[in-house]
Design a protein that fits this description.
Elements lengths: L4 H23 L4 H22 L11 H27 L2 H8 L2 H13 L5 H18 L1
Helix pairs in contact: 1-3, 2-3, 4-6
Length: 140
């Protein structure tokens, strides 16, 4: 069975919302840096289980070097993002932190145009402006 990319994008949004809610409760009881560590261990276990069940393991030597370098950089960026996100959740309401975190959407649009050469359409541009407006409203 093949799913459209939108199904996975909506799944990402749904689970990201749960991340904010569950994370807010978690960091109210545990230091945010330690919480990020435990969360990362769980993600590692879930990912390993999924790759094992789907029999998708490959030796690192068989993978693209460029791909691995960029995955390493992505992992570092993800870790720093989570550390900042959990610290923000520890200090502020989830209903204020999560929308500001979604400013990443605006940054992705900008970076995709500048770094990946993607074309900026008027719909994507207007959407990014609306998201940025929402971020500003929630941050005030």
């Amino acid at each position: 069975m093949t799913f459209d990319w939108r199904v996975f994008a909506l799944g990402s949004a749904f689970f990201a919302a749960l991340t904010a809610i569950f994370g807010k409760v978690g960091v109210s009881e545990i230091n945010s840096d330690l919480a990020t560590f435990y969360r990362t261990v769980i993600i590692l276990a879930v990912s390993a289980l999924l790759v094992s069940v789907r029999q998708e393991w490959q030796a690192p030597g068989a993978l693209s070097h460029k791909g691995l370098i960029f995955l390493i950089m992505s992992g570092i960026a993800t870790g720093l993002s989570w550390l900042c996100y959990f610290r923000a959740l520890q200090l502020a309401p989830a209903s204020r932190v999560a929308p500001i975190d979604k400013f990443s959407v605006v940054l992705v649009v900008l970076f995709a145009v500048l770094m990946l050469g993607e074309r900026l359409t008027w719909k994507v541009g207007i959407g990014a402006v609306l998201i940025a407006s929402g971020v500003i409203l929630t941050a005030l």
